[in-house]
């Protein structure tokens, strides 16, 4: 291993290797050669590729809520609780509109 130490805080590559922690912002540059293979080991790749598939948690939550609401609506209708059913229906409509994210002009 190349003998490297940070010119700013004096942290050596060996010390960094032990603690795994950088002493200051300049350490990154000083240990770049040391760090890159280390990060490769940790992440199994060179840094982040930024192509992680993202599932929208808020949308999933909304879908779950819709399912629950539809179930509740069915029950409410079955109990002839029409006022409650109407409220549920409104809420469902609201959520359904929200998932589409369409601009609805009022009036
Ligand atoms: Zn440093």
What's the short story on this structure?
The protein has helices at residues 13-19, 25-30, 32-43, 57-78, 82-100.
Tell me what the structure shows.
The chain folds into two domains: 1-48, no CATH class; 57-100. It contains five helices and no strands. It is mainly alpha-helical. It has helices spanning 13-19, 25-30, 32-43, 57-78, 82-100. The radius of gyration is 28 Å and the shape is rod-shaped. It is 62% helix and 0% strand. The model has no long low-confidence stretch (mean pLDDT 79). Zinc ion (ZN) binds at residues 6, 8-9, 11, 23-24, 26-27. Residues 6, 8-9, 11, 23-24, 26-27 line the site of zinc ion.
Question: Top keywords for this entry?
Answer:
107 residues; mainly alpha; 2 domains; 5 helices; rod-shaped; binds zinc ion
Question: What is the topology?
Answer:
Blueprint: H1 13-19, H2 25-30, H3 32-43, H4 57-78, H5 82-100
Helix pairs in contact: 4-5
Bound molecules: zinc ion.
């Amino acid at each position: 291993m190349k003998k490297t130490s940070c010119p700013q805080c004096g942290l050596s590559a060996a010390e960094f290797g032990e603690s795994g922690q950088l002493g200051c912002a300049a350490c990154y540059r000083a240990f770049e050669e040391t760090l890159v293979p280390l990060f490769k080991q940790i992440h199994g790749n060179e840094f982040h590729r930024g192509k992680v598939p993202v599932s929208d948690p808020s949308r999933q939550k909304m879908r779950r809520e819709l399912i629950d609401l539809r179930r509740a609506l069915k029950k409410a209708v079955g109990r002839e609780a029409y006022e409650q059913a109407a409220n549920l229906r409104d809420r469902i409509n609201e959520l359904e509109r929200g998932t589409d994210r369409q601009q609805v002009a009022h009036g």
